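FORM 12-B: Structure-to-Sequence Request
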């Protein structure tokens, strides 16, 4: 297990965050991209007091592929 001082959490658009990081400076990347479902997804807490939603709607397959390509290229650079 890594010491706490070596763990870092960054908040922001993943593409912007990754572009600001040093090449070959990451050991692991977890990727959970949108899946081109063309739907708005909504989840609720178990007690149904809060809802969370996101739109997985893309104008075209080409725009979706470009979105993934740019992020995966940065992941490759970081690893």
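FORM 12-B RESPONSE
SEQUENCE OUT:
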């Amino acid at each position: 297990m890594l010491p706490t001082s070596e763990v870092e959490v960054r908040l922001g658009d993943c593409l912007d965050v990754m572009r600001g990081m040093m090449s070959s400076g990451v050991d692991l990347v977890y990727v959970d991209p949108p899946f081109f479902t063309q739907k708005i997804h909504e989840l609720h807490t178990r007690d149904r007091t809060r809802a969370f939603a996101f739109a997985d709607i893309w104008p075209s397959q080409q725009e979706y592929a470009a979105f993934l390509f740019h992020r995966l290229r940065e992941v490759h650079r970081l690893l």
